[in-house]
Amino acid sequence: MESFKDIEYFVNALSGERLTYLKSYIKSLVPNLLEVREEQVENLCCPDCGSDKLKKNGNYGDKQKFVCKACNRGFGILSGTCVHGLHKRELWTRFIEFTLESMSIRKICEELNISRQTCLDWRHKLLTSINEVFTKEFHGIVEMDDMLMRLNQKGRREDFIEESRRTKTITNRYGNRVSMRLKGNRKRGISRDQVSVLLTVDRYGTVGTGMLKRGKMDSNSLNRVFGNGLLSRLNSDNTIVTDEAKAYVSVLNACGFDHEHINAGNKQWTKGIYHLNTLNNADGRFKKWIKYHFSSVSTKYLHNYLGYFKMLFFVLKSGEKMEEFLRFSLIDITSNFRFRNIENQYQTFLKY
Ligand SMILES: [Zn+2]
Fold first, then answer.
1. What is the C-alpha separation between 85 and 296, in angstroms, rounded?
2. How do the domains of the chain map onto residue ranges?
3. Is the dihedral of CA 157, 88, 289, 343 positive or negative?
4. 73 alpha carbon – ligand 1 mean position (Å)
């Protein structure tokens, strides 16, 4: 840190006018959340009723407040976004930078001097804000397959689910109940100790993900994921390639899509131009990325990490990743609501 000391010495030696200039210069290097958000919003509307008949209602800190004339709701420009109501908002851009480096929670806490819980909340606020943003339509050949992940209850203290008879629930030294896998006794085959996730990719780098259910996927869960936005991203020009699972045949035929299935059981890997290689590649990369950076992730937040992965490897292409990421994170004004709803969503998912 020799050079940093030098800079400090240099800054201390500056006169008032130059110091003011330096301050404004440094400020211009860090994007201001409010300015970024203001650029995004062309016509500010009420987040409740969508009316654009607003009146100004004073300031709160540096934020302009508005009141909707139609429904009387008060709100600001950041309402509903992931940074709404955030203390220490000024640290948000640095937090995004660290997130992009896949830095560990412990390290981020140290760097930003925030608590572990705040850091975890921020991570999932950020990830929730981006997971509904990239819903581009699919083009041409679309590969679709389910991926199995182990049910993971990392970080949970209450509402613990017994995984299976082959695991034992113990109380660890921190007083948390954790499930310990009995050595060599992993349940074989597909069971409710695993969760199915639907991956959909086309050959142009558009990715879709959906949480299917615990255990083996079926047509009901497939229909549910289709209904939750996937169907609207597919059109009649798409040819969908899947494996030979029956659920795909019934659901895709009912929706009237062109459908090719690859019979991997018969050692068939390609069928003319149709194959599942793009998808299997993404699947492998996702699992490796999770293992390398997070060791494992809780099933409760799996959806968020899928969105994060999608963002890192398929969306962000330019050199200015941080600013892009920041911009994306502020678009969705339902993100704060979805963040508060994660636990409910998880509880519903476990019952499927
Ligand atoms: Zn309103």
1. 30
2. 80-132+322-352, 136-151+193-296, 152-191
3. positive
4. 6
Report CA(61)–ligand 1 centroid distance (Å).
23
Interval between CA 54 and ligand 1 midpoint (Å): 8
Paired tokens of 152: 């993971």
Q: Are 213 and 196 in contact (CB under 8 A)?
A: yes
For the ranges 2-6, 158-162, 309-313, 318-322, the lowest mean pLDDT is seen at 158-162
CA of 86 to the centre of ligand 1 (A): 23
Going from the Cα of 72 to the center of ligand 1, the distance in angstroms, rounded, reads 6
Q: Which of 93, 74, 86 is nearest to 36 (CA)?
A: 93
* CA 342–ligand 1 middle distance (angstroms): 26
- Dist. CA 126 → ligand 1 center (Å): 26
Neighbouring C-beta atoms of residue 131, cutoff 10 Å: 20
Tens-digit pLDDT profile for residues 269-306: 888 889 999 899 999 999 999 999 888 899 999 999 99
**Helix/strand/coil (H, E, C) string of 291-351?**
HHHHCCCCHHHHHHHHHHHHHHHHHCCCCCHHHHHHHHHHHCCCHHHHHHCHHHHHHHHHH
Q: Are 137 and 233 in contact (CB under 8 A)?
A: yes
Q: How far apart are CA 33 and CA 62, in angstroms?
A: 11
Per the rule left: phi > 0, alpha: psi between -120 and 50, beta: everything else, 88 is left
What pLDDT shows up at residue 305?
A: 92
Rounded Cα distance between 9 and 18, Å, is 14
pTM of the predicted model, to two decimals? 0.83
CB-based burial, 281-310: b 16+ in 10 Å, e otherwise: ebbeebeebbeeeeeebbbbbbbbbbbbbb
Phi, psi of 326, deg, nearest 5: -60, -45
C-alpha to C-alpha distances, 278 to 117, 234, 351, nearest whole angstrom: 37, 18, 31
Q: Which of 32-46, 161-175, 194-208 is most confident?
A: 194-208
Fold designation for 136-151+193-296 = Nucleotidyltransferase; domain 5 (3.30.420)
Tokens of 64: 């302009």
